[in-house]
Amino acid sequence: MDYFYGPGRNHLFVPGPVNIPEPVIRAMNRNNEDYRSPAVPAMTKTLLEDVKKIFKTTSGIPFLIPTTGTGAWESALTNTLSPGDRTVSFLIGQFSLLWIDQQQRLGFNVDVVESDWGQGANLDILASKLAEDTAHTIKAVCIVHNETATGVTNNLAKVRKILDDYSHPALFLVDGVSSICALDFRMDEWGVDVALTGSQKALSLPTGMGIVCASPKAIEASKTAKSVRVFFDWKDYLKFYNLGTFWPYTPSIQLLYGLRAALDLLFAEGLENVFERHARLGKATRLAVEAWGLKNCTQKEEWFSDTVTAVVVPPYIDSAEIVRRGWKRYNLSLGLGLNKVAGKVFRIGHLGNLNEVTFISQIL
Ligand SMILES: Cc1ncc(COP(=O)(O)O)c(C=O)c1O
């Protein structure tokens, strides 16, 4: 028998889903509740207020959706765009590829800006596309803040600056699935129109909640966007927000209590300290990779990710074998290389609720 759970704890170091801290596990260990009681709307109201802080927004409207990152993408796109709309989207790894595939399947006209896997989004091409687009046919710029497949972080402030340089009104849609709550994210300052994340990443919750935040401009766009949407329609949420009952359908009570506990932990530590901790762990990982004589898949320092490192193995080694052996010998879960980099890289996740001792003793 090749695969079994060996002795000791499973050391979970994939870049999501991540380890769930004990206070969050305890907070979720509870019975179901009637979401129409006065208690759940009251809790939801404070959650919606508090969740804005992880996006650094005061004007955004958040939606806590029973879904995953993929559903959060769909919510962002279908609420703001109409079939045939032109988007610019950067292909730099497996997750940006999947988002582009979703955009195409939803009927948008996607300008794909491709870079080598290991590089960041090519923003020079974005600038030239916006410069040419005086008729404003580009309706949205879609970008993955942190490409989890390659460990590449894109510079969102630069994207905003380019949009501003050309006074371009395109919506700015950002996948923050492996960045938000780990890397600094400034929705209002960067003029992000829709930002989104998934509960199982840096929030360190179970999978199952997509957290989407829409700017006033995105909410305005949703009033005329013609994409078909039912489950993800923001209008239904807004209706129940106005009624003060908050939920168009049954929420997971356990996840709501978990989110409360996860936010409390983040705020107690202080978001800036959370970012610093991730920066330290990211740097430690890169130093270790160097010491091992291996290379980082990320080609330039400006793109280094503080949440995930994709480690390139020598060509005579199959990186999947390293992941397999880690699992078998040490009960260690590392991330596989995906798609183009399958067999070539393995990934170390260093995001979420973890500290130096946990990380260094179990991984480095
Ligand atoms: C950057 C990024 N976006 C989107 C997704 C898709 O999220 P989910 O698997 O929760 O649907 C992932 C998953 O790992 C991701 O890393």
From TrEMBL:
It is an enzyme of class 2 (transferase). InterPro entries: Aminotrans_V_dom, Aminotrans_V_PyrdxlP_BS, PyrdxlP-dep_Trfase, PyrdxlP-dep_Trfase_major, PyrdxlP-dep_Trfase_small, SP_NH2Trfase/AEP_transaminase. The modification N6-(pyridoxal phosphate)lysine is found at K201. GO terms for biological process: glycine biosynthetic process, by transamination of glyoxylate. The keyword Endoplasmic reticulum does not apply. Substrate binds at R347. The keyword NADP does not apply. Its EC number is 2.6.1.44. Residues 46-293 form the Aminotransferase class V domain. Keywords: Aminotransferase, Pyridoxal phosphate, Transferase. SUPFAM superfamilies: PLP-dependent transferases. One of its GO terms (molecular function) is L-serine-pyruvate transaminase activity. GO terms for cellular component: peroxisome. It comes from the Eukaryota. Its cofactor is pyridoxal 5'-phosphate. PANTHER family: ALANINE--GLYOXYLATE AMINOTRANSFERASE 1, AMINOTRANSFERASE CLASS V. Belongs to the class-V pyridoxal-phosphate-dependent aminotransferase family. This is alanine--glyoxylate transaminase. It comes from Populus trichocarpa (Western balsam poplar).
